[in-house]
């Protein structure tokens, strides 16, 4: 009997421990809240109501669950949350999803107690948040829908990164913004004729990255008139800007030009809906002054901003993209000269295709479901990407489309009621021509290309890449070595041609000694090495087998050998190196042996006006005839040199951090990151350890393979040999820092 009783007690305890039981400190407040809002029984565990409440264990050993998220939906009737929610200490998300649930102002008296709170979403807002409210540092996003009361300053003076205000109601207005807030990154604000708009947001939100302006422009027809958004100051960090116009049936017009003049640096602008208008006094929306991280993009959707243009009325910065949906503007409104990409869908304005004769940068056009008629111009054959399907084109197609025939060409221009082209059209290409002269010497690393020119060559194919569609294509050549090779290529029109080529001969430039996981390697840098198999290298007359090459691409390749397999060399003694790859011999180079060359600076900061600078390190020799220094391939004058310090005169350059200094001592090459800043006194170099070669054992690579630049910047294509006349092989073209990292990664993978 005792055994049965004991087992029964154990089973009851076990079952209780296995149940999902809410933390007692949270049960009362949650039970009361769910009962009042939804009639949920107070005897039930609130954590079992996954529709509204998400719970989790407080920690791995706890038998109680804590409320993590509240997603409160439609209550039985309009409800104001007056319960003290502060016991929900682990709350991360608070979402009141519908517009008949309200927070009382008392909530903001203790909101700072939610130390894990990430997001607040209010479907309704009818009480101003007190100005002395302190939000938790964890809070990242605050969303308010349907505000019907003034916004307080507290939300705008917090550390919240993202603030979104949507769908304003009568009674909504903005506070006066006073204090600078460097934390806000994403801001969405509504604007009406009555609410006004903060005129100093660019000065208050100094690090604002994305701004949405939602214009509610039909709030009261009795007081209908046009209005404007004035903003004082310049947005210095803005990357994205959205204008969205709502209630456009009787839309007030908003002059957008004056606002955009305060946005000198931006990546993306989006305009939706009716209402945006170019200021007549400006005449043209000239955005060519804008700078972007990459290519600038403008997108308009259901907008009339370009509809009433008389002639050209918008100009872009170089290398821009333009997207349009559901508009009705003339293509004459667009200045195409700086566009790279043009997309227009559902344009209701009847017209011919745009003239692209004065659009040298344009690479892609996508026009579909629009009222475009007439011919497809021959000039469209030069576009690398083209899609003109589902329009009303009723003229002729150019020769490049006829070459493809109805099956392939139809993917570009059908369906359209064209006069001379349909799905059954046979390929017809009488003007197909390949010019006799083409590059036939290619790199060994797999990046080599045969560049051909001609007429009606097509767009792409197996191993074909368009440079200029139909007139200049690249044929990709795989990794390999040797001479007298050939490749067969089938063009889009069915033509089969054979192209002959040879791989560049090996060319040795520099060497280095690196350490990886405590193992030392002797590396040789250059071009024309074998990336598939081992490389035969001769050092002082002794033939040695090196591993297959690594790196390549826009940089030189690297081959390596275990250091212990290197012939014995005396310090500062000279030795000769040559290579035989694919039956082709390299240059023979004389190097001088040093166990280590080291620069102690981690980074060099130079003036853009040029000047003189000292560089510290261990340089292996006092023989200045063995020393050369260059920055991105431009030689520097070495004015002083000892075994531990060298002084150089360096050239002027543009401000930036995309520079590499290369030190070559007797063929041993190391690199140093260089940054150019505005002129002044020459800055003192950093003395933290560099990533140049070291003889100290390490569990991580102590060097990145490096080379020395040639005496002049190379303008030779990557597929051509990089040797310059008179080059003795002891120097090389500059490598990027990214190449060092990639090379080390590849080396690590090969050796593990």
From TrEMBL:
Residues 1-20 form the signal peptide. It comes from the Eukaryota. The keyword Lipid biosynthesis does not apply. Residues 680-730 are annotated as: Disordered. Residues 516-593 form the IPT/TIG domain. Residues 682-730 have a biased composition (Low complexity). Keywords: Signal. InterPro entries: IPT_dom, LRR_dom_sf, Sexual_fusion_gp. Pfam families: TIG. GO terms for cellular component: phagocytic vesicle; plasma membrane. One of its GO terms (biological process) is pinocytosis. PANTHER family: CELL SURFACE GLYCOPROTEIN GP138-RELATED-RELATED, CELL SURFACE GLYCOPROTEIN-RELATED. This is IPT/TIG domain-containing protein. It comes from Dictyostelium discoideum.
């Amino acid at each position: 009997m005792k055994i049965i009783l004991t087992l029964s007690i154990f089973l009851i305890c076990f079952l209780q421990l296995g149940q999902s039981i809410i933390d007692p400190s949270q049960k009362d407040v949650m039970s009361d809240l769910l009962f009042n809002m939804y009639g949920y029984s107070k005897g039930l565990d609130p954590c079992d109501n996954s529709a509204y409440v998400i719970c989790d264990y407080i920690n791995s050993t706890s038998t109680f669950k804590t409320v993590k998220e509240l997603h409160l939906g439609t209550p039985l009737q309009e409800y104001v949350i007056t319960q003290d929610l502060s016991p929900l200490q682990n709350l991360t998300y608070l979402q009141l999803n519908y517009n008949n649930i309200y927070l009382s102002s008392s909530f903001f008296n203790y909101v700072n107690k939610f130390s894990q709170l990430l997001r607040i979403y209010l479907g309704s807002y009818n009480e101003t948040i007190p100005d002395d409210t302190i939000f938790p540092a964890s809070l990242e996003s605050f969303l308010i829908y349907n505000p019907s009361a003034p916004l307080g300053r507290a939300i705008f003076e917090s550390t919240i990164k993202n603030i979104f205000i949507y769908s304003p109601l009568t009674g909504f207005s903005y506070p006066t913004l006073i204090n600078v807030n460097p934390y806000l990154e994403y801001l969405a604000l509504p604007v009406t004729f009555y609410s006004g708009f903060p005129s100093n947001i660019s000065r208050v939100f100094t690090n604002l990255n994305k701004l949405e302006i939602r214009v509610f422009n039909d709030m009261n027809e009795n007081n209908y008139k046009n209005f404007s958004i004035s903003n004082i100051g310049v947005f210095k960090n803005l990357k994205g800007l959205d204008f969205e116009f709502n209630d456009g049936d009787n839309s007030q017009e908003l002059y957008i030009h004056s606002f955009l003049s305060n946005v000198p640096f931006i990546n993306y602008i989006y305009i939706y809906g009716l209402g945006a208008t170019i200021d007549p006094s400006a005449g043209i929306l000239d955005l060519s002054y804008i700078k972007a991280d990459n290519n600038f993009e403008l997108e308009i959707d259901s907008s009339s901003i370009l509809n009433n243009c008389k002639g050209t009325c918008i100009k872009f910065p170089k290398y821009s993209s333009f997207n349009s949906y559901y508009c009705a503007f003339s293509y004459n409104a667009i200045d195409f000269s700086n566009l790279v990409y043009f997309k227009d869908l559902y344009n209701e304005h009847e017209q011919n295709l745009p003239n692209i004769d004065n659009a040298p940068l344009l690479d892609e056009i996508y026009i579909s479901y629009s009222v475009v008629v007439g011919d497809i111009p021959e000039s469209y054959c030069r576009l690398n990407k083209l899609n003109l399907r589902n329009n009303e084109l009723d003229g002729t197609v150019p020769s490049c489309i006829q070459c493809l025939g109805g099956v392939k060409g139809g993917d570009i221009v059908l369906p359209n009621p064209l006069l001379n082209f349909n799905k059954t059209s046979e390929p017809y290409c009488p003007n197909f021509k390949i010019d006799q002269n083409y590059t036939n010497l290619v790199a060994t690393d797999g990046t080599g290309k045969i560049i051909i020119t001609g007429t009606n060559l097509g767009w792409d194919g197996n191993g074909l890449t368009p440079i200029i569609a139909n007139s200049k294509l690249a044929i990709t050549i795989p990794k390999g070595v040797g001479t007298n090779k050939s490749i067969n290529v089938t063009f889009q029109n069915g033509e089969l041609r054979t192209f002959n080529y040879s791989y560049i001969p090996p060319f040795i430039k520099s060497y280095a000694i690196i350490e990886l996981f405590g193992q030392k390697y002797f590396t040789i840098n250059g071009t024309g090495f074998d990336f598939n198999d081992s490389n035969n290298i001769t050092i002082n007359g002794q033939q040695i087998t090196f591993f297959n090459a690594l790196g390549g691409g826009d940089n030189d390749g690297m081959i390596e050998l275990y250091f212990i397999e290197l012939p014995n060399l005396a310090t500062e003694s000279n030795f000769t190196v040559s290579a035989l790859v694919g039956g082709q011999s390299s240059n023979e180079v004389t190097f001088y042996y040093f166990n280590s060359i080291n620069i102690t600076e981690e980074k060099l900061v130079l003036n853009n006006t040029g000047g003189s600078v000292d560089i510290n390190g261990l340089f292996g020799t006092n023989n200045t005839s063995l020393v050369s220094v260059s920055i991105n391939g431009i030689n520097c004058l070495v004015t002083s040199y000892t075994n531990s310090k060298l002084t150089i005169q360096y050239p002027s350059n543009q401000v930036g951090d995309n520079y590499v200094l290369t030190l070559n001592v007797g063929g041993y090459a190391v690199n140093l990151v260089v940054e150019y800043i505005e002129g002044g006194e020459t800055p003192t170099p950093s003395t933290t350890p560099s990533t140049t070669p070291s003889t100290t054992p390490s569990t991580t690579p102590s060097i990145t393979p490096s080379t020395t630049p040639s005496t002049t910047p190379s303008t030779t294509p990557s597929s051509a040999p990089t040797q310059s006349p008179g080059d003795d092989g002891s120097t090389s073209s500059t490598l990027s820092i990214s190449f060092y990292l990639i090379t080390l990664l590849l080396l690590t993978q090969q050796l593990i």
